[in-house]
Automatic annotation (TrEMBL), chain A:
Keywords annotated in UniProt: Germination, Membrane, Transmembrane, Transmembrane helix, Transport
GO BP of this protein: spore germination
Gene3D superfamilies: Amino acid/polyamine transporter I (1.20.1740.10)
Protein name listed in UniProt: Spore germination protein (Amino acid permease)
Keyword S-adenosyl-L-methionine part of the UniProt annotation: no
Lineage of producing organism: Bacteria, Bacillati, Bacillota, Bacilli, Bacillales
Membrane association type: Multi-pass membrane protein
From TrEMBL, chain B:
InterPro entries, alphabetized: GerAC_N (IPR057336), Spore_GerAC-like (IPR008844), Spore_GerAC-like_C (IPR046953), Spore_GerAC_C_sf (IPR038501)
Bilayer disposition of the protein: Lipid-anchor
Name of the molecule in the record: Germination protein, Ger(X)C family
Keyword Signal: yes
One of the record's GO cellular component terms: membrane
UniProt cross-references to PROSITE patterns, sorted A to Z: PROKAR_LIPOPROTEIN
Species name: Domibacillus enclensis
Segments crossing the lipid bilayer: none
Keywords linked to the UniProt accession: Germination, Lipoprotein, Membrane, Palmitate, Signal
GO biological process, one term: spore germination
Domain Spore germination GerAC-like C-terminal positions: 198-360
């Protein structure tokens, strides 16, 4: 697996495809619940945290240029502790993938297919996911780059909506208070997670350290900008009070416009969104499967992909209503700062103190 | 080969048989009227079209009314009368009777906002008198109510005599405490057997509280910088003459000031470029003449704007979103003042600057 290398631009799109996903529909609402019309500032702030996190990860990964996190953890923190870490990371990625999947299932059922049993979509999604992620990282990266052309479809929202916006709706900036904005950024972090893949993709990317850092930081910046712009647009489109009752503002505002040829742009938009939601699911399931493969000392990650994909279907179906999803997502949200920031930071500090470092071979 | 085997079951599953909605089974309504004859009752009138062929144009096949306590219940009672399932997802025009609009209109729309397949781009209109009667009148030369009303509204929007709205766009101001909603209003002309755009219904707190004419709506849209494709006026020019002008370009600056005693003062400063469409006295090449015409037009426009603003304040309809601007500047101050009482009392001054830039192909 080591020999499979990816190009810098592929690294960029893997991170972007993982970050941009279910958040497109719900993130503006989720942060608005906490930070009001300043929710977009929360997203920007979360983007800043992500940049700091990326910096820590680059500093850590640069000490072991040829190894992934799972490879060098035993050197830094010892064999048993690192085994525990791999278990935790695998569980975290698996639970996150379940959240993404159930989010996808609930949105499709609410918006487009109310009568289709969610099981059908779960099986289809898991099916195509397995089909892709049982392959190596190169194949996955190529698909992600290809699917990223659909980002143009997201941009159409901006083009259509611009004439209906009332920027006075978001003024005055910062009136909700620093505390609310900070709290909102916690919610936004989940949508921006995906940059942690750098810990695994770093040694696989063919580029100097500095370029890799620029690419990873650029990818997070790109996602942050897209999310912030989506939030800004929805806040300027809906009045503050109305936004409180519209949980998926982005798709709701697309529904208000009509083109000469396409009457229901929301359906087109949802089909594009589905690709991004599924690629996020793929990424997390792939990470979980590769962790599990190391734990069971399998020669490749295929059998763990099959197992986890089958397990994810009933798990995602257990989450039935948006309320359940909120409760489940809340727990993931609590855990994610630990995995995205705390653990890499601690490992980096330990590596610094114990002077663990390796040269490029 | 392995991939092919995996794809086969997927192909079967993607056929999506659960949510198919076949056109032949659906009974589509393109135009619907809502009336509330008395509190707690909703009458829904729906027009169903008959598809046309190459030889015969589409016609209205059926007009059915259902009553119930809620919009959905009334729709369900219409559903009981028709063959095939009722489908509102293609709705083009939603009409609300003027008496009904004088009560809170949001409860009538809630069902439509809640349904993912509902057409948020449907036009919403207020009708003078009961909405149901607009499906009983004969409209000369028009066989299909929905198409006629939709075109009536769309062309009115293009000519800037009614505001550009739809189901979704009207929802934002209905909820906003700093902006009030407005909807087009139409009337039926007995003599011509046609409907006619009457102007704009003004709302406050989700209730219709007044109306302005089509001309005044154009003036309002100019003040809001919301001129659509065309916008024209016929104004008195001189002793007896009238002049029809087309507004080419409007640039409005709206400035809101809140004094220490919380008195709100709004200054509307407008730069208008117009082109003369009709002016029998001619001689539009004389500089002197242009100058006097500029001045009289300025005065006439200011009078029209002033009248419009007065009517808005009488109806307590803050369509221009002056309240929203105060919130944008200082939300605490807005909370302190009672905007419903402060707005009609506030000072709104309009200043117009006119420049004639065109006169057609003769002088």
């Amino acid at each position: 697996m080591k020999t499979r290398m990816i190009e810098p631009h592929q690294l960029f799109f893997i991170i972007v495809q993982t970050q941009i996903g279910i958040g497109i529909l719900s993130l503006p609402f989720v942060v608005h619940e906490i930070a009001g019309k300043d929710g977009w500032l929360s997203i920007l702030l979360a983007g800043l945290f992500v940049q700091i996190g990326t910096l820590v990860m680059v500093a850590l990964a640069a000490r072991f240029p040829d190894k992934t996190l799972y490879d060098y953890m035993p050197i830094v923190i010892g064999k048993w502790l690192s085994r525990l870490m791999i278990v935790l990371f695998t569980l975290f990625f698996f639970f996150t993938s379940i959240q993404v999947l159930s989010n996808f299932l609930i949105f499709t059922s609410i918006w487009v297919f109310p009568r289709t049993p969610p099981l059908v979509f779960a099986v289809i999604t898991a099916g195509i996911t397995v089909y892709l992620i049982r392959e190596n990282i190169q194949v996955i990266a190529r698909f992600y780059v290809l699917a990223s052309f659909l980002l143009v479809g997201i941009l159409m929202v901006f083009v259509f909506m611009v004439q209906y916006l009332n920027w006075y709706n978001i003024l005055p900036v910062g009136s909700e208070g620093a505390k609310a904005i900070l709290k909102g950024s916690g919610q936004a972090l989940f949508s921006l997670s995906g940059f942690e893949f750098l810990l695994w993709l770093f040694p696989l990317t063919k580029a100097p350290v500095k370029t890799k850092w620029k690419i990873a930081a650029g990818a997070s910046l790109f996602s942050t900008i897209i999310y912030t712009a989506l939030a800004l647009f929805s806040y300027a489109f809906f009045s503050d009070e109305e936004l409180k009752i519209v949980p998926e503002p982005v798709i709701y505002m697309v529904k208000a416009v009509e083109l000469t040829i396409i009457e229901r742009i929301d359906l087109v938009f949802l089909s594009l969104w589905a690709v991004f939601a599924i690629t996020s699911f793929m990424s997390y399931l792939y990470m979980a499967a590769s962790g599990a493969a190391i734990l069971v000392k399998a020669s490749n990650h295929r059998s763990s992909v099959y197992t986890l994909a089958v397990l994810s279907i009933p798990a995602a179906l257990l989450i039935k209503s948006p309320l359940d999803l909120d409760a489940y997502g809340g727990k993931i949200n609590l855990a994610s700062p630990v995995f995205l920031f705390a653990i890499p930071f601690v490992i980096w500090v330990v590596a610094l103190l114990r002077k663990k470092k390796e040269e490029t071979s | 080969m392995k991939g092919l085997l995996l794809m086969l079951p997927l192909l079967l599953l993607t056929a999506g048989c659960w949510d198919e909605r076949q056109l032949k089974d659906a009974h589509l309504t393109f135009a619907t009227g809502v009336d509330v004859p008395k509190e707690g009752k909703v009458d829904v009138t729906m027009a169903f079209p008959e598809a046309g062929t190459e030889m015969t144009p589409a016609t209205t096949k059926q007009v059915l009314t259902g009553s119930g306590h809620t919009f959905r219940q009334s729709a369900a009672s219409v559903d009981k009368k028709i063959g095939g399932g009722l489908d509102m997802s293609k709705l083009r025009v939603l009409m609300i009777g003027s008496e009904t609009a004088k009560q809170d209109i949001y409860p009538l729309l809630d069902a439509l906002y809640r349904n993912p397949s509902s057409p948020l781009n449907a036009k919403v209109v207020v009708t003078e008198g009961e909405a149901s009667s607009y499906f009983q009148h004969e409209i000369k030369g028009e066989e299909l109510f929905s198409r006629y009303y939709r075109q009536l509204i769309e062309s009115g929007e293009d000519r800037s005599i009614i505001p550009l709205t739809n189901l979704q766009l009207v929802c934002s101001p209905l909820f906003d405490k700093g902006t009030d909603a407005m909807l087009p209003i139409i009337a039926y002309e007995e003599n011509d057997q046609s409907a006619k755009i009457k102007g704009t219904a003004l709302f406050h707190d989700r209730k219709m509280t007044g109306e302005i004419s089509a001309n005044e709506t154009s003036a309002l849209l100019m003040m809001m910088n919301k001129k659509q494709k065309e916008l024209s006026f016929t104004l008195p020019a001189g002793e007896q003459d009238h002049m029809t002008v087309e507004v080419k370009k409007v640039k409005t600056k709206l400035k809101v000031d809140v004094a220490a005693d919380q008195k709100v003062k709004t200054d509307i400063d407008m730069n208008v470029q117009i082109s003369v469409l009709e002016y029998p006295p001619d001689n539009l090449d004389q500089e002197e003449k242009i100058k006097t015409l500029n001045e009289t037009t300025e005065k006439e426009l200011e009078r029209l704007m002033g009248r419009t603003v007065r009517k808005l304040q009488e109806a307590n309809c803050d369509a221009m979103g002056i309240g929203r601007r105060i919130i944008a500047k200082d939300p605490d101050q807005f909370e302190k003042m009672d905007w419903s009482n402060a707005y009609p009392e506030s000072d709104i001054n309009v200043k117009v600057n006119v420049e004639i830039i065109g006169n057609g192909i003769i002088l």
